[in-house]
Amino acid sequence: MTDMPMIERPSPNFDERASPISLLVLHYTGMPDAASALDWLASPESKVSAHFVVCEDGQIVRMVDEAKRAWHAGRSHWRGINDVNSASIGIEIVNPGHEWGYRPFPEAQIGALIPLMHDIVQRHGITRGNIVGHSDVAPARKQDPGELFPWGQLARLRLALPRPTRNLMDPLWTDSAFMLALERFGYDIAEPEAAVVAFQRRFRPELIDGVIDGECRAILLALLLPKPRGDE
User: Fold this and answer.
1) Can you name the residues that pair with 28 across neighbouring β-strands?
2) Where does the N-acetylmuramoyl-L-alanine amidase domain lie (predicted)?
3) Cβ(105)–Cβ(29) below 8 Å
4) Of the candidates 180, 178, 184, the residue with the CA atom closest to the CA atom of residue 213
């Protein structure tokens, strides 16, 4: 358990894990403000929770003990894991989200998130490929933490996979071959366009159109190589 300073706001919404921790899932709260998000996550009626909430001013709130299974990911999948809640730590990052006025994440907030993530990743041995957004594990349902989230900043600290940028080569896959490669990388491809959008939101956020193009193919190929080449 982390010994970082934080506020305790226990949520009743948890149960027992069925598998060891191997994932870290990042979310935005998607509610008008921090107070309403915390109230919702702490309400028995909501049936949702997270292990930690990071507020915009950098305050960290602990809601569920890491040893327990918080209810943050819902119906989700990543790299063969279907019970993502059992295998993950969930962090909610306060942001209104696409519904309430999506905006950049403040410096103080990311400044608090980074050491929290580092602590969790070190203690549980979570690999960079298993540090994901909610949209990565539930592409048909979710958009968070979204295209404004600073994945590149985290990647430079080895807290996420980097976006490949060097020596990119288009493998000229067919669309069906791209989808098979995307599934191999980790995504649920049951809804192909949603999976492509989620991939773009994470690895090519400047153009999210659901269209498989040469740049998408080249980025995915580079990610599947033994050592991704990116902006580290």
Assistant:
1) 93
2) 9-146
3) no
4) 178
Contacts of residue 53, defined as CB under 8 A and 6 or more positions apart, other chains included, come to: 9, 29, 34, 37, 38, 41, 60, 61, 63, 91, 92, 93, 94
Please give the Cα distance from 43 to 31 (Å, whole number).
15
**Annotated catalytic residue 92:** yes
- The closest of 45, 141, 144, 35 to 91, measured between CA atoms, is 144
pLDDT, tens digit, 9 for 90 and up, residues 99-113: 999 999 999 999 999
Q: What is the average pLDDT value for the chain, to the nearest integer?
A: 95
CA angle, residues 49, 53, 57, in degrees to nearest 5:
155
Question: CA 62 to CA 65: how far, in whole Å?
Answer: 8
The token pair at 197 is 């959008």
Question: Token digits for 43?
Answer: 């309400």
Encode pLDDT of 38-74 as tens digits. 999 999 999 999 999 999 999 999 999 999 999 999 9
* Active-site residue, from 45, 92, 99, 183: 92
- What is the pTM for the complete model shown? 0.96
Length of the chain: 232
Q: Does the pLDDT value for residue 228 go beyond 60?
A: no
83-98: b (≥16 Cβ within 10 Å) or e: ebbbbbbbbbbbbbbe
Rounded distance between C-alpha atoms, residue 121 and residue 113, angstroms: 12
- Quick one: 33 exposed, middle or buried, by C-beta within 10 A (0-12, 13-18, 19+)? middle
Bridge partners, 81 (sequence order): 78
